[in-house]
């Protein structure tokens, strides 16, 4: 019974921490949006920042397209080639199993 109470209180604390982090992230997003709005409203600095944002966005799109195009068609992204060798036998935790002599 004590274990169940402990697990429930720990889960409750974890949910509160995650909710707090989400609020912090939203707060940072709001502050960044307001800062961007104020900075782009400045007559000389605003157009330069807008141009920089457009160029960074186009650069990101170009980089994504370039990586997609330069990838070989036979290997999807994130997959490693499969080797023909048999994988080593290991116990959970990575401890190798020695063959019986």
In short:
This protein is 65% helix and 0% strand. It is built from 2 helices and no strands.
What does this structure look like?
The protein has 101 residues and is mostly helical. It has a domain of 60 residues. Helices cover 65% and strands 0% of the residues. The chain contains two helices and no strands. It starts with a helix and ends in a 31-residue tail after the last helix. The mean pLDDT is 77.
List the helices and strands and how they pair.
Layout lengths: L1 H40 L3 H26 L31
Structure characteristics:
single chain; 101 residues; mainly alpha; 2 helices; 65% helix; flat
Report the average pLDDT across residues.
Answer: 77
What is the end-to-end distance?
47 Å
Number of strands: 0
Radius of gyration: 26 Å
- Provide a count of the helices: 2
Helix content: 55-70%
Order of helices and strands: HH
């Amino acid at each position: 019974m004590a274990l169940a109470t402990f697990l429930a209180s720990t889960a409750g604390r974890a949910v509160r921490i995650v909710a707090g982090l989400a609020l912090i992230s939203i707060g940072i997003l709001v502050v960044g949006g307001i800062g961007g709005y104020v900075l782009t409203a400045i007559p000389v600095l605003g157009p330069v920042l807008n141009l920089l944002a457009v160029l960074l966005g186009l650069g990101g799109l170009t980089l994504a397209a370039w990586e997609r195009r330069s990838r070989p068609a036979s290997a999807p992204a994130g997959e490693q080639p499969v080797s023909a060798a048999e994988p080593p036998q290991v116990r959970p935790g990575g401890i190798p199993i020695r063959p019986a002599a």
